Amino acid sequence: MTTTDPFAETPDFDPVSLEIQWQRLISIMDEIDFATVKTSFSTIVGESRDFACILVDQNGDSLCQSRFSPPNFCVVLPRTARRLLAVHPLETLREGDVLCTNDPWIGTGHLPDYILLTPVFHQGKPVAFMGTVAHLSDVGGHRGDLEAYDVFTEGIRISPSKLFIEGEPNEFLFEVIGNNCRVPNLVLGDIRAIAGTHQIGIRRLRDFMDDYAMPDLVELSSVIHGRSESLMRSRIEALPDGEFEFGLDIDGYVDIVHLHATVRIQGNDIHVDYGGTSAQTRKGSINCAYNTTFASTMYPFKCSLVPQIPNNQGLFRPIHVTAPTGCILNCDDGFPVQARAKVTNNINQVLFGAVWSILGEHAQAGSGSIWPFSVHGDLEEYGPFSVSCLPHGGRGAMQGLDGMPPIAFPHNSSVTPIEIMETQAPILILHKEFRMDSSGAGRQRGGIGQRMTFRNIADSTIQGRVRPDKMFCAPPGLDGGAPGVVGEVRWNGRNIDRFPPLDLQPGDEIELLMPGGGGFGPVAERPAEQIRRDLIAGFISEVAARRDYGWAGPSEGGSG
Where are the beta strands (DSSP E) in 47-112? Predict the structure, then answer.
């Protein structure tokens, strides 16, 4: 449905003033982001950057985020904020309060993601909230990642609560959280650090409002949301009306999972329905609460239609998402969800599969996905430790662009440096290199995957966790492009395909062979010069060049 004119009630905001003020708000969130990295205790927050900083208005609607924030978190946090405010209404909040939850069905879909929400008071009343979603090192529960019967074995669940009350820590809640995790120094350290960064944001936002003599953010919020929604609707309206459908098989765990999407474009609205998707399962912790499905659905449309507009609530109003209750994309409370990214990281691909032909240069072939790896233990020389790494496979190709080499997609994160991992845990990184011949062929080649090998160098057993993806269902190509090469995990040279907690004995090695991205466009249309460059760079071998592209020329330095 078309909204009323978003400019009608806010005539004083000229585009230049709006841009200056909006960018200043973003810079505030960037400062909080930087402070989070600098004051964090764990590698998953400080090195992998598995967190997001979001500013929401007095209603809980997002205004902006830090530039590096994962998009999935940024779309969910406003939904979580409104649930928190339903339990702790605005009028009951006091300066210094901090709200929190890690409930997967209220928050971002699994227990490790804690949401902290701090009200900003200005001139004696709450005018906004500083929000952070962060993946913490441990929430108790079983030691694994992929295998669980229900959410109750996956860790402690915190209902909407006050973590701080008028500036004082809720000691009982801190004690409960600390007593239910293996590395309380990391977990409680990160929580306190995040709450501290919000105080920076509060001071900066008050300065901002004083500089512009703003009693509140109601008017600015209205214009940001209104203009963003208006632009998104205009971009949707330029697309052809119609119904587009696509189904995609993905790895799942134990069983193959089918994702199915029907995308209906009607006027200036988009309706996405996931009817036909596989049912929820207890064979793996891969079920998705609705929030994370909703957020993952926004990603390809936001990036394709309004790539230059900062994320905010107005952009998502024209996009409507339904998923049958009890399917793997809208699971019932209680189902295991720890590894839900195994499924949600494929949502972008089922949507691109449906509408790639009308998105033009923005559509992307399948990517190699995230392959989280972590080691845990308690050794005399290290103390209790938990070190995480978030490597990725190659990115899918686009209509006019080869796929990128391993890089986070579709959610931002960074890879923990080798030096940090080797310093904080008894592991040695033996290999971290491109995986030759892993990319899907096409007019545009998919991004090359990578190989990483870890060795336990301790004198005793440590625990490892691996969550691979696309070991059975390859990253798909688009428009005639070939799929990427599937991944493999080897434990001491032996392929494995089940991933309970891994007891790594001294000298044990884990090798991750991550998939390459899918290709885009007919293979026969790839220029010979680009094939030659790939050979020289070592992305493909001469054998693969002949097999996949019919290459007949000299390799000129490529490996055979």
Answer: 51-57, 62-65, 98-101
